[in-house]
Write a structure and sequence with these properties.
273 residues; 8-stranded parallel sheet; 11 helices; 8 strands; 41% helix; globular; binds 6-hydroxymethylpterin-diphosphate
């Protein structure tokens, strides 16, 4: 097995990770890729727009979402992963059997919103494959996480958690240079928590690993516009949030609207450099 380079060499800063949700309500493609699964077509369109990698997920982690079985998740993602053979793919899963299948089909990164706490076998699967992994912070679990999020200091708490999970991953045989970290925007956090995490992102980059941030369409972006019941945010709000995160050190930006993010980040990068 050829050892993968450090994740920060494999993905330039900033990189856009396109979100490909293979959930029952996925919408249809635009006809360009008529013979592919709609989600596969969507992924190719994202890569054509400049996504560095596409993140394929078969289970919703939205607040209140109910879990699906590993078999069901595999059934959903398998045709999409097969259709993307040879392309840069990440698998958004917490389950070892789903990750194993995805890695066999060529995925290079496992994006685990539980940071290797959800399935005791997942760390071994990542280590054995020499894959990249994203470890994300979440308080509680998707079903209940937005009920009453509480922290002493959200940034210090998230930082301590990510430091501990990074050590856990390394102890399980995953190369430190293959790990990126994510504050988990919207996962057991209020709008204030989310914006404070972005404002003080520099404290997380101090951990020495690339930081992935997923703000795209999240409800805090709708709430800041004055709708306390918002469940999503607009593309414009998402792009602004991604640029703000990039300027504070984010490495990979997870986004649904890839073209807009790629264009905005290209400009932001030209200004920073
Ligand atoms: N957010 C979502 C899902 N996976 N993974 C990482 N690393 N970071 C995130 O912020 C993140 C994530 C939720 O967004 P989305 O994919 O749009 O929704 P759903 O989980 O319902 O498919």
């Amino acid at each position: 097995m050829i050892r993968k380079p450090p994740i920060e060499e494999r993905f330039a800063r900033p990189s856009v990770m396109g979100v490909v949700n293979v959930t029952p309500d996925s919408f249809s493609g635009d006809g360009l890729y008529l013979y592919l699964e709609p989600a596969t077509a969507e992924a190719y369109a994202m890569l054509a727009c400049g996504a560095a990698i596409v993140d394929v997920g078969g289970e919703s982690t939205r607040p209140g979402a109910t879990p699906v079985t590993a078999d069901e998740e595999r059934r959903r993602v398998e045709p999409v992963l097969a259709g993307l053979a040879g392309e840069p793919v990440s698998i958004d899963t917490s389950k070892a059997p789903v990750a194993r299948l995805a890695l066999e089909l060529g995925a290079e990164l496992v994006n685990d919103v539980t940071a290797l706490r959800g399935d005791p076998d997942l760390a071994g699967v990542v280590a054995d494959a020499g894959a990249y992994v994203c470890l994300m912070h979440m308080q509680g679990e998707p079903r209940t996480m937005q009920a009453q999020p509480r922290y002493d200091d959200v940034v210090s708490d998230v930082k301590a958690f990510l430091e501990e999970r990074l050590a856990f991953a390394v102890a399980a045989g995953i190369a430190e240079e293959h790990v990126c970290l994510d504050p988990g925007i919207g996962f057991g956090k209020t709008m204030e928590h989310n914006f404070e995490l972005v404002r003080r992102l520099g404290e997380l980059t101090d951990l020495g690993r690339p930081i992935l941030v997923g703000l795209s369409r999240k409800s805090s972006l709708g709430k800041i516009m004055g709708d306390p019941d918002a469940t999503t945010g607009t593309t414009a709000a998402s792009v602004a949030a991604a640029v703000a995160a990039y300027e504070r050190g984010a490495w990979i930006l997870r986004a649904h609207d890839v073209r807009e993010h790629v264009e905005a980040l290209r400009v932001a990068q030209a200004v920073v450099n």
